[in-house]
Structures are given as C-alpha cells and as structure tokens.
Amino acid sequence: MAAIAAGTKDPTPPTTPNTVARLPREHLTVAVLGGVDAGVATLLKTFLRLTGSKDLPAVEKCDAEASKCHAASWIPLFIGDDRGDVGRVEFETERRRCSLLFASTYVDYVPNMLRGAGHADVAILVVSARPRDLEFELESGGHTGLYGKVPTMTRSCALLAWALGVSRLVVAINKMDHPTVDWSEGCFDKCLKGMKRLLRRCRFRTSEVSFVPISGLDGTNVSAAVDSTRCPWRRDRPSLLDVLDALETRRDAGAPLRVLALVGRDDDEDGEATVIVGKVESGTLRLGAEVSIVPSVRSCTIDQIRPLDGVWDLFPDARPGEVVRVRVVASGPVDVPRGSVLCAEPPCRSSDRFICDLRVVDLPDGAGSLAEGFRGTFHARNVEVGATMTRIFEAKDRSGNVTNGAKSLDMDTTGVCIVSLERAVACERHQDCPYMGNFVLRVDWRVCALGRVRKLPPDQD
Length: 461
Prior knowledge:
Layout: E1 18-19, E2 26-34, H1 40-51, H2 56-68, H3 75-79, E3 87-92, E4 96-102, H4 110-117, E5 122-128, H5 131-137, E6 143-145, E7 148-150, H6 153-163, E8 168-174, H7 185-201, E9 210-213, H8 240-246, E10 258-266, E11 273-282, E12 285-286, E13 290-294, E14 298-307, E15 313-314, E16 317-318, E17 323-329, E18 341-343, E19 349-360, E20 370-371, E21 375-380, E22 383-396, E23 402-404, E24 408-409, E25 414-427, E26 438-443, E27 446-455
Parallel strand pairs: 1-15, 2-4, 2-5, 5-8, 8-9
Antiparallel strand pairs: 3-4, 6-7, 10-11, 10-18, 11-17, 12-16, 13-14, 13-18, 14-17, 19-25, 19-27, 20-24, 21-22, 21-26, 22-23, 22-25, 26-27
C-alpha cells in the first residue's frame, strides 16, 4: 500500500531504470475529514472498492485488525504509517489520480489530522444526515463532553481546512439511506442550510463549496449518480467522484519551485545522497536542477525523480500536485526535518518569528483569553513546533472595534501579534504564498487560534 512510511528501504532497483514521460492524468491530494460517527472509515472502504484501488486488500486487512480490537471506527490508525501518523491510499478516476489522506477524528489525534490537511488540494468534509447527528454537530458553541465545553468535530474540521489553506471543500452528506432519512429532500435541505450557516462562520464562501448527498455504506451516489427512481430530486446531478473530477485546482507550473518534504532519509552509507518524499506545490521540478533545502539552507542537485508507488521508472520532471520520491545529491549529509521545503531561485524565507493576524476560535481549559506569553504548538503544513505569542499590537472584536496595545485576545477576537517559534521554519507572507503563510496554534487537542503571516523580519543576507 502506498502509505508514507519513514525508515523503510526501497527494493533494489533494476540496473537500467526506464525514463518515462510524465503520467497523463494530473494528481489530486484529498484530505477526508469528519466527526467520529460521520462514517469516514466506511466511506474510505467504499471509495477503494468502487474505484478498484490496489490498496483495497491492505485496507480490508487493517479493517479486520481494527475489528479484533473493537475499534472499527479507528481504522485510520491501523492504515497509517509506522508512527501512527496519516493514512494514505490511492485510487484513480477518469481524469485524475487521487491520494486520500486521513487520520482518526478523535480529539486525541488532532495533530495527525492537521498533518493530513496541511498539504491537501481538496478536503472532503463528511457529515451525517441523521437528524440526531445533525442537530448535535450543528449545535452552536459546541457541546459539553468528557473534556468540558468543546466545539463539534465538524466545526473543528471546517476551521482547520480553512486555516491550512485547502483550496476547495466538498461536503459529503452521508447516511442518506438511513431509515430516518430515506433520501428525503427535506432532510437534505435542512442539512444543507445548517452546514452553509456553519461554513460561513468558518469564513468559507459557500458558493464555492459543493454539497453531495451519499450513502457511504452501499456506495449510492459515490461513484455512479443515484437512480432517479430512488431520488428524483437528484436527477442529472453529479456523484461525489464526478464532483472531484470536475474541480478546478489553482496551480502554477511557472511559479518559483516549492516542494514540501513529507519524509526524508539517507539513501547510502556515506550520506551523500538522500531520498525525499515530497509534494510539488508550485513550479516544475526537473532532473539536474540545483535546489536549496529550507530551513537547513543546504544546496543539492536533483539526481532522480521517481513515482511514489515504488515502480522503478524515472520521471524527467514533476509538475504541481505530484507526490514523488526525489533523490538529491550533496557534498555531505543533508538534514531534512519535517516540513522542509525544496526551493529553486528565489528561495523561500525561513524565520523563527513573524508578525501575524491571529483569530481566536477556542480557549485552553481555565483560560478566559489568550494573553501575551501564551504558549502553544505551531502547525503549518506538516510542521509542528513550540510557539509563544510574545506581543499584541491590536485587537479587533466581532463588531469591528479596535483596541490598540491590548494585552490579551478574547474569544472570536482577531489580533495583530508577534509569534516566536522554538526553531526556524520555512514560511512566507500569506499575501505572497498562501499555502506557506497559513498556520494554527494548538494547546493539547484544542485548536485555539488560526493565523496568517503578515510580515517577516528583514532578510539578513
């Protein structure tokens, strides 16, 4: 199975690998998000079964292991890599090759979910159409549970998708076949209205969000459109896979090269070659190109570009959206920490502090606000590092009232702040490069604030 796993050696390649042209269908990375009872694991298996994915046998084996542990809804933890990180499976449609990224939706695994959504092109937000589930997930202000007052997982997932810069969102309204729903247009409209209200609060433009009713259990309207005799109000409307195929993604092959490193490891004993599993975010990666690895600021040469699935073919280049194995050669050991970025000229910036716009969406236990000195965990793409809010310049409440020199940020307040990190990370201003200027601040499992980098320190070079 094409799971991204660190520390595993590739099989011995043929002595004369083939150089092939770029694969004809573009690649799409899809993060699957949703609450615990939304049916994410069931939808995953249905996706792979209907598309004939080569990963289906491995997923079924993981499903059996999860069932033995009485944890069927925890199947993403069994499919993830050897660190219990983010599961990855592959399937194909008529137009695209797709990678599904997913993690457990339990609150203890929010970091895993952040790493999955951090480098996705599209997110599928799975919600349940059952009236009881719908009312629970749309409850304003969250609900009271084991961890106290918490926002619902549906709202949390939507906020994370928006904060991490996922370009397109598809809402899969699941369990339409349940007896309490039975493909009712009224139930779908109620769910549609409630979800649009929730997404507007999360700052999504609902006109750009697709809503698709499905049954993840029997696969209705997942691959083929639902039969008009069963659901006449969906006549001639697209299925979930049709919607994914038709989505237009914003990619620029002519922009400066940026490759997000997902996994890096030594390829030979002397440390002169390193294999990096990376996703091309912008620009075109070419054989023989000279690149820099940020933030370690090492120069190296692209020696090989291979497909992720382990087929021993070589690509002459890789365009935006592709996830590939890249072999780089340098004069010495190459350090590739999580979240590194491969760049051509001009290289991206790296910094351990910046001025940002910060929006408070939740508060730590026992806290009435986020004050100067607030400490949390910084998440951007697949970067995870300690952070401190060292200074607040101004705060703006929901009514638009601005307080200069504020010392704390209340709930639903937006502030202009300085955030300092424990180590330098690759980043850019949001207005220059949105996917490298978005981040979230987390405390334990709570996502407390959504941020966008506004200004970086002056370049010292």
